[in-house]
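It is worth pausing here to work through a concrete case rather than discussing structure prediction in the abstract. The textbook approach is simple: state the sequence, then state the predicted structure, then interpret. We follow exactly that order.
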Amino acid sequence: APSKVSSDMKSSTCLLPATANAMFGTPYLLFLSAWSGMYHSPWPFCTLGQARTIVRNARDAQSVAGKAWGRDASSMVERVMLDVGEADLEGGLMGGFKDISEKLYSRAMDTLEEKEGDIGMMGDHIKGMVKVHCLLGMANLSLPNDSSLENTVADVASAEKLARDALHILSSLDPGTQHNVQPVLILCIYPWSTPSLHRLSRSYHVCASRQLVAEACLRSSRPEDARVFLTDAVKDLPGNYEAAFALAAFHLRIMLGNNGNDGNGAKKTRTLLLKAAKMGIDTVAKPDPFALLGVWYESQKDASRAKGCYQKALAIDPSHPVAGRGLGRLLTTSLEEERQLQTFCENAAKQNSPLNGWAWRVMGQRNSRGEEGCDDAAVVVCFQQALRCRDIQVPGNDILGPFYSDPASVSAVSNKEQCSEVSETWAELAACYRRMGKYSAAMRAYEASYCVSDGNLSPGALCAWAQVDLDLGLYEEATEKCDKVLLCLESSPEIHRMAAYIEGEALLFLARRYIQEGKFGSCLSHLEKGIARLLALPLNEKLSADSYYCEVKLLGDLYSSGNSLPSYVFATASPSQDKEHERKMGHLAVEVENQISFMMKGERAYTLALEFGKNEDENEDDNKCLIAAALTDLGSNLLSQARVVSTALGEGSGGGTNTALSDLTSQSCLIKDLITRSINAYLSAVDTSPLEAPAWCGLGCALIAADPLLSQHAFSRALQIDPSLADSWSHISLLYADFDTKKCSEILDYLTQVEDTPLMWIGRGFLLEKTSREWKDKDLAREGCLTKAADAYRAALQIMQHPAALLGLSLTCRRADPGLQNSNNLVYSSLADHASKLESRMSMLIHQNLTGDGNIGASYVSGLTQLEEVLNGHVGFGGLDLAKEANAALSRARTYSNNEKESERDMAPCEIDLSIRLSLRLDRTAEFPYELMKNAKEKALSISPSQCPVETTDLRNPCNELDEARNSVLLNPESGEVWLIFAKMLAQELSVEAKDNTMLSSAIAAAKKAYGLFRERVVNATLLTPRRQASQVKSIEYSDKSVVSSLPPACLFSESMSLISMLEEIEALNNGGKPSVSERSFISLQECLLLDPSNPFAAASIALKTH
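Step two, the predicted structure:
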């Protein structure tokens, strides 16, 4: 027994907190207190989440009471009250579910109609008040808070009927009579049952009902009916304050809707408001009439009397939302008035009221622009408190909500401006978060502002949101928001300029991103769009020179970004045939001239920015920095123009050509002039601001060709000023690469600790290539250095697609360990060689796409790799076109090279290991590259369309005899290539012998066999790794990464599928069918074109199908 008692005590102790609450009904009483919906607006102090928690705890407590204390199930009265309270929070608080609210109101109404249980014992007065409350809640749901929404006639009529039904029930209730109800039941229904609270509850519901009926009449375009309804109510109850105030408020709304132009109506409105104020004073002082009198005086431009009325209302209720907002609009002319407003706001904030959000917002706005600095933490608290208040959250739920806005505005009677108030509060909170560096919180706040405004954010808020997107790198979103602002006719000129500047920055960043992605057309279009935005800005004499400086400097940045684009992007018109492939020294192509003209506009923009900077006081440190920055950008623009011209003239081509920058500077007056002006601009920047590190770095870049020693000094000075400047480290390392390899390596090590830049890895690759030249007699060591150089260039390309890295990778990646050329690793070596050739070809293709064809050496290599691809048979039906393209590329390169002066040095052999040399069996002493290219072009152009070379050297016999093709199948039964050749031979024989079904079946079987073998190689592809002997000692490391097993060329795969389709159609035609393409064959032909767009049979067959 003692153990049982102790266990019972232990269990009861564990249940004590929850069961004690359930026993005494604390959660239910807390719910009634927090709800308070029977005598004023429900849930005045709670947010949606808090209200839901209170209702949930009350329901849980009832369940616990039944389990722990043996209490019967909750009474029907308690369930009704909980349903009504939950319906109020879902339908009245922001974020609630309207459909749930409607269902709960309907369930409560159905329960009140029952006559059994404790519902039947409820007094008629209490039951009637609950019904009235439900009817008004359902009427509110039928009328959305935002009157700008289009309401159907049925919704308005339903709301009006519900409100009139509520008035009818209220008229039957006698406020002075107390029904004989048991005290216990009264406590279960409502904890306060004094007559004064009953009268207050009835008065509140009567006023709300009349307001709803009048609102429904207004929304159904029947203002006269609303006026008659409210006037009759005053006649029926001549001494009733609520009826008089409702009529006065209605007349004020109508007057504000007419902009106060109706003189007789304005006087009548004032008389009604004074009468309602007198009635309120006779009973208990009411602040509402005085607040609306202030609105009336403010609409009549009588600020002094308006202030007096507002102050009278705040003296009665310090948190009155209409009076507080009115004083916030009027007390802004002097410092003394602002102090008075601060006092009123502090008094309102001390009140435990759900309608003092205006005070918190005003205090937040004042703190954010405080003279002694901005305390963002305090500002955030103020705006958060404001957003928790109902006059900010849901102003439409307040009877006086239409009077929150400025009476001077035409839309004062609508809720659109009320919705913008909560939206602007969220936007102000977001701006505060941005100042604090909390960008994620700022984004969420702006999204909340956008949601509550139904997508109608103010232009200022959109600009601020776009700036946050810009800070976070969301450039597309920032551009979209700025476009909306620029299309908005209501935005001020200042907001318009801000949006144009933000969009220009976003477009500049997008253009730089598109350059890395190779989308040059999109890059140029974004640059032009940003330029158009800035050029469209009108001149404003009120703006300072600093404002124009920023805009003009951004304009120069947009123009100067054209140096990163290939010149062919600027080809607005096709040049003549005489100039297309000829480019002499000093004569530039049309597209290059267009690119230079584009960049020269940036030069003029920087010059204009420099003038704006000089218009201010040049002795101030800030202005000195602005002038130095403009001069630095001007020098960079001029140097970029020189680089574009030198690139077009073949800078860095090598091979004995005089295309070094120093040579081009002495040969081209244009380049010399641009570099000289660039040096002068950098020197002026240094003179203006000696601690301008970018200016020293730019000066070093401009002096590289003229004076390497002075260039080194400039880079060193830049690093003394700013050791974290990665550009200075990169350029000084490349400067040392030609003079001191060891020092260059040390600088690259320092650069590794500063920033991961592509030039760091490019410098490593260059040093490795230079080291490989020292291993003339050691092939293994030499090839190993080049392999490491290729890895360095790959690392650079992981950062960005730098043209130098692409060119270096293309020339160094085709390396393989000679030790792998044995029987054990023959398959791996062949596949690795194919992969390296593909990587080299793609790198060179991207390089040429980025830079054009100005580099003569790169053009040579690009043409040779194209010829190699043709000769190796990886191009299918497009082989002839590719061969002609390669021929044209080599011809252009030869033309550019012939324009150079003959060099006295012997031409070095080509570093790249092209199999063309082996396939043509040329002697190593032959003149290279001219004789080699001549023979390669002749062989490539001699390929006929019917020939399809294959990968393996054993199958390169172009014999078309059917017997030899059959023998090849017998010797190589697992080769899809030979089966495809055999099927093509059978198809050719089929064209000679008409309707030979045996030959046709054989051709179809051979084509399907080829397709099956190709598909098997694709589906069951594996990784291969080289096998080395354990005793082998490696003196150098190689890139022995695994490679994918042999995959068939896409062109052969496509050719086999199209051949099957063709043969099946011939078979159907022989069997009496019509010459058409079946649905299955049509899908197969589409797949053929996806694999090889140059497949002519697939294209012709699809055209037949579509026609």
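Step three, interpretation. The chain has a mean pLDDT of 76. The two ends are 98 Å apart (CA to CA).
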